[in-house]
């Protein structure tokens, strides 16, 4: 083979390799519709499964308007996997990412890289850390509820069933999440206003089994505990199991957050006093619609607050 032919062959091989690794957005598009990626936390949590179902139902009704790709992590705390999912969606050439981040800080850099690649990013459910956004010089709109307000509503309802000075404990979400921090603050607001004694506040990391372990230890330490305020319903389920195992189901009131279907019968039975509905099925839809709006109008992004509602046995009737 001549030197010229060898050179041509090498160039052809390199071109083929480049085509293989090019993002989908750089290849010929099969559709002119915008492609939206919904990136969620753990789909093992019913809240996010409900979110996915809501998004897919919305897409089915608007299939001519956009294409949808939905994905989530297996473990609530698998931040590295969620980062990989974002990187993959960018490589596949999506136009927008709607993300419920597993970590309010750690997902900011990869989302900034997505924006640098021309992808619109909308933050839902768990708000990105303001200081990290500022440090990275990026503005990402948050479409979601006021978690502090929601938790305060639950705490205020619970407090009506207690008396001033009663001992209560808070089961927090993961400490590196904005919504977990805000829910803790909302519970504290309500307990302080009602004169309750918060004797313990510990993280259950959003998970039923971990919350069960934490609550079991709290019950051993505080024999006269009167209530548990849980930052999500999965942890409330773990708290219920722990109080049953300790023979204290009738003595301790429990509040949750998320209104997953698994707690609704427990609300009717009185095992849970209340929960908060932040409308998981609609939360992704709000984010998707805002992403489509941003793609169409190219305007300056702004935060949008979505509803939170107190759910009790009475509201379920």
Topology:
Layout: H1 3-21, E1 35-40, H2 46-61, E2 67-72, H3 79-91, E3 96-99, H4 108-116, E4 120-124, H5 130-136, E5 142-145, H6 147-159, E6 167-172, H7 178-194, E7 197-203, H8 208-221, E8 225-230, H9 233-245, E9 253-255, H10 261-269, E10 275-277, H11 280-297, E11 304-306, E12 309-311
Parallel strand pairs: 1-2, 1-3, 3-4, 4-5, 5-11, 6-7, 6-8, 8-9
Antiparallel strand pairs: 10-12
Helix pairs in contact: 2-11, 6-7, 8-9
Brief overview:
Helix content is 47%, strand content 18%.
Our estimate of the beta-strand percent is: 15-25%
Mean pLDDT: 91
The rounded Rg comes to 23 Å
Distance between the termini: 83 Å
| Unreliable runs | 7-29
Largest sheet report: 6 strands, parallel
Q: Which series of helices and strands comes N to C?
A: HEHEHEHEHEHEHEHEHEHEHEE
Specify the CATH architecture of the largest domain: 3-Layer(aba) Sandwich
Number of domains: 2
Tally the beta strands: 12
CATH topology call of the largest domain: Rossmann fold
Helix content: 40-55%
User: What's the CATH H-level homologous superfamily of the largest domain?
Assistant: Response regulator
Give the CATH class of the largest domain: Alpha Beta
Q: Treating each run of at least 4 consecutive H or I residues as one helix, how many helices?
A: 11
Cα shape: elongated
By secondary-structure content and strand pairing, the structural class works out as alpha/beta
Strand order, sheet with most strands: 2-1-3-4-5-11
Q: Would you kindly provide a written description of the structure presented here, covering whatever features stand out?
A:
By secondary structure, this protein is of the alpha/beta class. It has two domains: 32-144 and 280-306, 3-Layer(aba) Sandwich (Rossmann fold); 147-277, Response regulator (Rossmann fold), CATH 3.40.50.2300. Helix content is 47%, strand content 18%. It is built from eleven helices and twelve strands. The protein has helices at 3-21, 46-61, 79-91, 108-116, 130-136, 147-159, 178-194, 208-221, 233-245, 261-269, 280-297, and strands at 35-40, 67-72, 96-99, 120-124, 142-145, 167-172, 197-203, 225-230, 253-255, 275-277, 304-306, 309-311. Strands 2-1-3-4-5-11 form a six-stranded parallel β-sheet, sandwiched between helices. Strand 3 (96-99), helix 4 and strand 4 (120-124) form a beta-alpha-beta unit. Helix 8 crosses helix 9. 47% of the residues are buried. Mean pLDDT is 91; it is low at 7-29.
């Amino acid at each position: 083979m001549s030197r010229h032919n060898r050179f041509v062959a090498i160039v052809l091989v390199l071109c083929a390799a480049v085509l293989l690794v090019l993002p989908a957005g750089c290849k010929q598009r099969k559709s002119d519709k915008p492609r939206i990626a919904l990136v969620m936390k753990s789909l093992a949590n019913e809240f996010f499964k409900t979110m996915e179902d809501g998004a897919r139902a919305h897409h089915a009704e608007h299939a001519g308007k956009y294409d949808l790709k939905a994905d989530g992590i297996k473990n609530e705390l698998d931040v590295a996997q969620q980062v990989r999912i974002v990187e993959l969606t960018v490589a596949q050439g999506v136009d927008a990412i709607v993300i419920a981040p597993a970590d309010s800080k750690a997902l900011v850099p990869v989302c900034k890289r997505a924006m640098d690649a021309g992808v619109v990013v909308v933050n839902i459910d768990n708000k990105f850390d303001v200081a990290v956004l500022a440090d990275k010089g990026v503005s990402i709109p948050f479409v979601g509820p006021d978690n502090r307000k929601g938790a305060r509503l639950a705490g205020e309802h619970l407090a009506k069933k207690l008396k001033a000075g009663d001992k209560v404990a808070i089961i927090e979400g993961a400490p590196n999440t904005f919504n977990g921090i805000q829910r803790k603050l909302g519970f504290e607001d309500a307990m302080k206003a009602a004169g309750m004694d918060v004797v313990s506040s510990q993280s259950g990391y959003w998970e039923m089994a971990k919350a069960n372990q934490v609550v079991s230890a709290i019950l051993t330490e505080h024999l006269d505990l009167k209530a548990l305020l849980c930052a999500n319903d999965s942890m409330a389920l773990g708290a219920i199991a722990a109080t049953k195992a300790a023979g204290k189901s009738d003595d301790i009131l429990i509040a949750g957050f998320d209104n997953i279907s698994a707690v609704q019968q427990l609300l009717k039975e009185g095992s849970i006093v209340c929960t908060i509905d932040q409308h998981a099925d609609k939360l992704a839809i709000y984010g998707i619609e805002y992403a489509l709006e941003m793609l169409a109008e190219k305007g300056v992004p702004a935060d949008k607050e979505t509803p939170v509602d107190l759910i009790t046995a009475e509201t379920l009737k």
